[in-house]
């Protein structure tokens, strides 16, 4: 069984450009989460999706960040007009349900570097 | 603000030693406390988790101790091995997203 898949694994872009990061959750998992991990730091929650419910966007750091989840499966995190402080590893996780009874399974992340 | 404080930031032990990593939380609504292990270039992997209705949980060489009144929990790794060298994160959840500690970089020397 495949785990959570993220692409690209690495992304280098110039300041001011837009980037899109992709997450393929584990098949059948209805909950999907995005986290950001800065160098040597813990994980910072960004956004989560649960089924067809409205996403919880409370962790998004600015309006330059947005995410969508199509068909209840694949999710895309978009960062517009990137800044150097956006450099980090962006991690996606999925769980069977959005419930603390269900463990979150993480992908290996996208390492984003803004020049 | 919901926070989970983790210590130490780094830890070096000899093979066979018992590293202990501690976490403290503030939000009494938290009811799920997982620990994740992360190797370089990889995503965090769930190691073991506990709920506040038990004081200890053991899985293999990994043990979580939980002190509800002190709002603290800790991870013990018995008979540590060089392959345990990784970064460990505690986390807490109240039914929503996970709130993570800052991580502990563990090195187990042969």
| Shape call of chain A | globular
Low-confidence stretches of chain B: none
Helix coverage percent of chain A: under 10%
Percentage beta strand of chain A: over 45%
- What distance separates the N and C termini of chain A? 37 Å
Biggest interface goes to: A-B, 25 and 25 residues
Distance between the termini of chain B: 41 Å
Q: If you compute it from the alpha carbons, what radius of gyration of chain A comes out, rounded to the nearest whole angstrom?
A: 13 Å
**Percentage beta strand of chain B:** over 45%
Q: Give the helix/strand class of chain B.
A: mainly beta
Please state the CA-atom Rg of chain B, rounded to the nearest Å. Answer: 13 Å
The major beta sheet of chain A can be summarized as: 6 strands, mixed
Tags for this model:
heterodimer, A: mainly beta, six-stranded mixed sheet, four-stranded antiparallel sheet, globular, B: 110 residues, mainly beta, 0% helix
Describe the SSE topology:
The complex is a heterodimer of chains A (115) and B (110).
Chain A: E1 5-7, E2 10-13, E3 19-24, E4 31-37, E5 43-50, E6 65-69, E7 75-79, E8 88-95, E9 105-106, E10 110-114
Parallel strand pairs in A: 2-10
Antiparallel strand pairs in A: 1-3, 3-7, 4-5, 4-8, 6-7, 8-9, 8-10
Chain B: E1 4-7, E2 10-14, E3 20-25, E4 33-38, E5 45-50, E6 56-59, E7 62-67, E8 72-77, E9 86-92, E10 99-100, E11 104-109
Parallel strand pairs in B: 2-11
Antiparallel strand pairs in B: 1-3, 3-8, 4-5, 4-9, 6-7, 7-8, 9-10, 9-11
């Amino acid at each position: 069984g495949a785990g959570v898949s993220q692409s690209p694994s690495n992304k280098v872009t110039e300041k001011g450009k837009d980037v899109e990061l992709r997450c393929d959750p584990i098949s059948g998992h209805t909950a999907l989460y995005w986290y950001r991990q800065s160098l040597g730091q813990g994980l910072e929650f960004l956004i989560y999706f649960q089924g067809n419910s409205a996403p919880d966007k409370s962790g998004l750091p600015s309006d330059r960040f947005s995410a969508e989840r199509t068909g209840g499966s694949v999710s895309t995190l978009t960062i517009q007009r990137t800044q150097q402080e956006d450099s980090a590893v962006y991690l996606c996780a999925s769980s069977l349900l959005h419930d603390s009874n269900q463990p979150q399974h993480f992908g290996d992340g996208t390492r984003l570097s803004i020049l | 603000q919901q926070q989970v404080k983790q210590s130490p930031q780094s830890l070096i032990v000899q093979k066979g030693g018992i590293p202990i990593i501690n976490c403290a939380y503030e939000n009494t609504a938290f009811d799920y406390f997982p620990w994740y292990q992360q190797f370089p270039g990889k995503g965090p992997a769930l190691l073991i988790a506990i709920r506040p209705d038990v004081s200890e949980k053991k899985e293999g060489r990994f043990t979580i101790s939980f002190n509800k009144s002190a709002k603290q929990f800790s991870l013990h790794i018995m008979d540590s091995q060089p392959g345990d060298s990784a970064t460990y994160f505690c986390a807490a959840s109240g039914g929503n997203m996970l709130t993570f500690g800052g991580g502990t970089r563990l090195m187990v020397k042969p």
